[in-house]
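Lab notebook, bench 4. Still working through the backlog of constructs that have no structural model yet. Next entry is a single chain of 502 residues. Request: give me the structure tokens for it.
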Amino acid sequence: MPAGARQAARIIAVHVAIVIAIIAAITWVGYGLLPVNETTAGFAYLLAILFIAARWGLAESITASLTAVLAYNFFFLPPIGKFTIADPQNWVALFAFLATAITASHFSRQAKMRALEAMDRQKEMETLYAFSRSILLIQPSQPVAKQLAMQIAQTFNASAVALYDRESGQTYHSGPEDFPDPDDQLRKAAVEGTFFRDDATRSLITSVRLGAQPIGSLGLRGADLSDSALQGLANLVAIGLERNRALASASRAEAARQSDELKSTLLDALAHEFKTPLTSIKAASTALLSSDGLEPGQRRELLSVVDEEADRLSILVTEAIQMARIEAGRVHLRRDHQDVPGLIESVLEKLKPRTEERAIQVRISSQIPPIWVDRELIEVALRQLIDNALKYSPPDTPVRVEAEAESGRVIVSVADSGPGIPEAEQTRIFEKFYRADAARHVPGAGLGLVIAREIIHANGGEIWVESKPGEGSIFRFSVPVIAAQHNSARPPIMVTEHDHHD
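Model written out:
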């Protein structure tokens, strides 16, 4: 005999013993302890049978009925002390007890089944709710169908899950076992909207529909679900797939909108910035062409205007090209060991036309370690910061450039004596085309700091600003040094100054 059957037999035997004990207790109380008449005893037996039928079931209640008839006949029906089954009263009592037992046990069984079904439905609803919440946590960085299959296996304790996405034509599996699909039932269910169930393997396949259109199919093995719960699960899977497609479509639309907006803003900014130097170039060239009697000094001054404004146009175009390359991810780093003093000196040399009448103070730690960066790009970033400081500082104030080693990195600072930046704007100044209120009168497209930030981030560094209104600004960025210098002690400070005055 199987272990389960033996266990059930033991439970019934215990129940029968308890039933006999209950009937015996009623008989002892009604006959010996508190003598009662036959009517009272009969009601007592009926109540006991009703309780037993409701509590356990049909087998126990029939046992109680037969035991109660025997006790009722022997102790309460005349002749007392003898069994007289032929007496009509015994048959009435027997049928009354049996009818009570059968009716009560039937209703009890139905009530228990309804209660169990209600509990199962409640559990299924709770599980479906948990699965619906997990859909909201799905990450778009991985295939959504794959994540849905994993969530189904975990939430419904399925031994195997297969989810076929009709749009991509791929099937995603999850669970400790492989889902068998020898006849390609998953694809058929997704195309034809059919349903397949195999009770022998406890597996099923149902179509996943969005409205009347099948968009996939779901295969489950080892998960006990009612038809309504299975339909609810398929609907949630359809919602999850469609939600991801809607989000992807919205993301593409938003990316396209932002791209168009970026292009429009860039063109507007460049058109505005080009207007001033082009006007100056046009005026100077017109004066040169229309005036034959210009003095050499006047001619040189007009040519200088053309040269300076052409340089300004070149810078604007270069910034736009650099920003476009950064946005498109076409900037390739060529990192190497770079000497910091030489890098700063090279940048200042390239900015010499801008700094001839300005004081530039350079403060560099002696024996500062080399940095591991792309020299050309870092020069562009540093040039943007120094150019920014020159534009926003009064002409008679110096621009300070400092570099020092700290905790395996080199920190380069560019300080000015400009109007300063309010705290609320200090994070926004690194956004494309954003310009602080105090800087709107200064020419520029609002791209310089963005380019510097992207270049420094690409080289493994960070950039930030320290500023207070009326006290100037200090832009700092940190970049990594080479590994051999990470543990070097900070050397003493060496100060050098480059003051350019006519």
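Notes after review: The longest strand covers residues 213-221. The CA atoms of residues 106 and 128 lie 32 Å apart. Flag for follow-up if needed.
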